[in-house]
Amino acid sequence: MARIITRAGLGVLGLLIAVAVIANISTAAAKFFGLGVAIVGLFIFFGLIEHFFPAIKREKRRRKGVVTDVIWFFVDPTVSKGVTTAAIVVVVLIIASIAGVHLDKDSINTFARRDTLISSQPALLQGVEVFVALDLIAYWSHRMFHRRALLWRYHSVHHSSTEVDWLSSVRVHPLNEAGTRVVQAIPLVLLGYNPTVIAGFVPLLTLYAIYLHANVPWSYGPLRYVIASPVFHRWHHTTELEGIDKDFAGMFPWMDAIFGTLYLPKDRQPMTFGILNEAVPDTFWGQLTYPFRRRPAAEEAIKAA
Q1: CB–CB of 88/186 below 8 Å?
Q2: Burial letters for 146-166: b for 16+ Cβ neighbours within 10 Å, e otherwise?
Q3: Cα separation, 294 vs 18, whole angstroms
Q4: pLDDT tens digit sequence for 67-120
Q5: Residue 89 phi/psi, 5° resolution?
Q6: Domain residue spans of the chain
Q7: Percentage of the chain modeled with pLDDT above 70
Q8: Are 220 and 10 in contact (CB under 8 A)?
């Protein structure tokens, strides 16, 4: 049975990679019709695998917060993407200005695609380096979102789901998304990596993040410490004390092992999720405005510690 589950998990992993490649080739705009088709397809796909391979069997077909998460599904690739793009553009313009680059489109593109020792590498080698670098930067930014009270205000929205599944993955505050993408993209562009190579990983990372939240018990067996699995990331969302503030990596669990934040027991699954001692609103508008609400000083001190 364990072998069947492991093979099924690896099969889904391969399928997701293939879909991400196709999505990358077809640069369709994130429009509502396309998103509507996508969410229906995802509901069917993940509905089937979560039904036949559930990590936690549910008594109810419809979980709490589905409507809120459906709204987030449409907000993320539209509003959040716009905020993220604007933030990256602003930072690039500031850096280009400091570097003495003329602030016009052609000059900015030339600056971003300038010849460097790194950009002269084959695209495949750049891709491998970017893949690892993106996750390394994401690991530390993710860790900071947990350890700093101000950043946690935004990231807590993502952790507010008490039933974690594929759809709960999209519950991400726009400023959380923008902050993460800026600190990922800017250093790599400054180092000279091809922006096209960097952007090429976006569909894969987005789709894989959805899959990591799925309510399935897959951990990839012998590859459990090499590639992030749903079990690995679901432990990150647990309210069980031993798993809190663990498993920050998005793709490579060995980074957590290196930096002392890995928690991935072989004999059990996480059973409870959400946030301890904090009540994030259930509605979309409540979650969107939650980071800006005033909080008791004692609460801020606890998280800062």
Answers
A1: yes
A2: beeeebbbbbbbbbbbbbbbb
A3: 45
A4: 999 999 999 988 888 888 888 888 888 888 887 888 777 777 777 778 888 888
A5: -60, -45
A6: 2-304
A7: 85
A8: yes
Q: What is the length of the chain?
A: 305
Give Cα 300 distance to the centre of its chain: 25
CA atoms within 13 A on the CB side of 132: 8
Token output for 264: 């991935």
**C-alpha distances in Å from residue 291, one per residue of 80, 141, 172, 281, 287:** 15, 18, 12, 11, 8
Q: What is the mean pLDDT of residues 53-72?
A: 87
Q: 149: which 2 tokens?
A: 């009270």
Measuring CA to CA, how many Å separate 194 from each of 26, 57, 114, 201, 209?
A: 19, 45, 9, 12, 23
Between 4 and 53, whose confidence is greater? 53
- Report angle CA 212, 218, 223 to the nearest 5 degrees: 90
CA 160 to chain centre: 15
Q: 114: Cβ–Cβ under 8 A, 6 or more apart, which residues?
A: 192
Residues 160, 181: contact at Cβ < 8 Å? no
CA distance 242 to 240: 6
